[in-house]
Every structure is written in C-alpha cells, then in structure tokens.
Amino acid sequence: xxxxxxxxxxxFVFGWLSFxxxxxxxxxxxxxxxxxxxxxxxxxxxxIATEERLGAKYGLDMRIIYAGRIRPxxxxxxxxxxxxxxxxxxxxxxxxLASKDQVIVLTSANKVGSSLFTxxxxxxxxxxxxxxxxxxxxxxxxxxxxxxxxxxxLGLEPDRDVKLLAVGEAALALPAxxxxxxDAASLTIPITLVARKMxxxxxxxxxxxxxxxxxxxxxxxxxxxxxxxxxxxxxLKTMIAAIAIYKTDKxxxxxxxxxxxxGVDDEVLEETYRYTSSVLEQVPAPSLxxxxxxLDILSFAYPQAKQTDPNLIIDASIxxxxxxxxxxxxxxxx
Length: 334
Prior knowledge:
alpha/beta; D-Maltodextrin-Binding Protein, domain 2; 5-stranded mixed beta sheet; 14 helices; 39% helix; globular
C-alpha cells in the first residue's frame, strides 16, 4: 500500500474547527452554536447549512464547531453548544445510565454505512479468531457497533475470540490496518470506499446485515425543548432545508464535502454523495422503532438497555409539526 493512500490521515481530525456565517450577524438573528462529531457524508447537511447561510432564513446566526477528540455531549451538558449533530450513542448511553436530560429531536440517517474490513487473507469469521480488530474510542459508536456485529452477526466474542484495539476514528483505523497493527477494522463511509480500492476484504457490510441505528441525529437538552421551542424549530428547519439541498443539488453538496473532508479524492466524494443522498431522510423525524433497535445493540455492552424506556429518548413532535405545516413538501417542489 503506497503513501499516496495516506490521505486518510485527515489532519483535521486532530484540530478544533469552527465556522461562523459572519455575513449574517445582524442583531435580529438569534445566535446558536452547533457541535458535530465526525467527518462523513451524513454530516454534509450541517456543512451546507453553514456554507449557504441557511440559518439566516429562519432567524439564526448559526456557528458550528467540531468536537474533536472530546465527546460532543460534554459541549451539550456544559452549555457551550446547546445542539449537537452526532450519532445517537451518547444520548442513548446517557439514558441507559439513568440520566434522562438529553433528547433526540431529529434523525437524518438510520443506516450506518459501515463495514468490517480485514486483511486480504482473512475471509471468514473463523479466520478472524485470535486476531486484532480496530475500534473507536471505548463506548463510542464505532466501538459499540463492532462489538455488536462480532457477537450478533459473526458469532465471535469480543476480548475472548478477538482482541479489540481502540484507535479512535475510522480515519485512524485504516492506517492501522494498512500498517499491520491490526488485522481488521470497522470503517465508515467514505473510508469504506478507500478500503475497497486498497484491496482489503469486506467481511461484513452492516447495512446488508440489517443493522439500523440513529446514525446522524440532532440532540439537545429536554430543558431547551421546553423553554426555547422556537429556537429548536429554527435549528430543525435549517437542518431540514439543508437535507433538501443535499438530496437535490449535487454540485453544492460536493462542494461542501470537498471543503470539510479535505484530502478526499473526487471519485470517493462522488460515491459518498450517491450513498448518503439515498439514505438521508426527507422527513427526519426520530423513529421509536430505530431507538428500540439501537437499545438492543447497546444491550450487549449495557444489559440495562433492555429496561430503558425508548419513549423518553426522542421527541419527534417538532419535526412532525414542521412536516404538517407543509414546510418540507415546499422544499422539494422548487
């Protein structure tokens, strides 16, 4: 594997990036900060909202910040970012562990776009026994998902049949696989596309295995929903409008991804767009069934997840009100 493949280092993974639509800072706009947790196609609507300054249409001066290596929930709880765009893992885990103050108010993607890749010589679960698998940070989405797939789909017991090595984001897992530090890695799109091009074996495609999960969500505090419903509505309208742009304007979408996913080649961006545009929800209301499926996945790590009330984890009412107003249908008539 040549050095030219090492764009995957994603220098921005180590930084703290912030962008502010400075052209729209009029005093009548309500300022809000939204934190996000990763660089993949599912996050493109947030970047489009920033680049197109969509918030201003709905009364917002919206600033976005990348959460870097910290958990985005820390920014939410501290009040530094009253909204986060991330997988549902943080809020789900919070509820499982008895803290009920966070709530998912929008879910834009319920498919995870992830696969377990192995060295070319490993082509079965049996051959993976005794080997090392790269995962995300302990307790995060990448870690929980690979543990679930190993147990429920491949019949392997983590930490017994295979060794797990937490290396961080998928952008770091592929180099670990390439260098032989690990024998397998759980990767997400667009890194899955690069892994295929590099010749690694795709042992398990999570979408084909029927895995569903609140992969990309907008989460806030329940207190914010109660005390600032108009702010929540503005944020969700901005995100819903951005999803519509992503699904209908390929050029703008690719431009935003190219800026934020620096170093990714055009072919990979094209394929990322094709996949992501097909899985983004036009009406991104959080689904109770998806939350139940996610709790089942997390129950492998947290048995108490089976007793966690899924109804308390989501509030779909605001997205549904926005839909009933005709707002979403109008976006797709243009």
